[in-house]
Amino acid sequence: MPYAQAIKEFVVAEFLPDVSPAELDADYDLLASGVIDSLGLLKVIAWIEDRYGIDTDTVELRPESFHTVAAIDAFITHASPQRAKSA
């Protein structure tokens, strides 16, 4: 998971100020637990666009892509511009 640490740091900074990134399990369900709500999800998507240069208007956004750090990592890996260039 190449992006997991950065995702954890973002989630902790924005939504879990009392937790360290090391404490956030990559498989913890961020949506079901209420850590990220619908407005928070928009913040996550905006962060992904800014940080990784992913145009989310051109990729399919599914809720399951944002349930966990691992799922977000897989989404970024799949949607990153570098991958699109090599495909």
UniProtKB/TrEMBL annotation:
Superkingdom of source: Bacteria
Record-linked Gene3D superfamilies: ACP-like
Protein name: Acyl carrier protein
Pfam families xref list: PP-binding
InterPro entries, A to Z: ACP-like_sf, PP-bd_ACP
Domain (Carrier): residue spans on this chain: 2-80
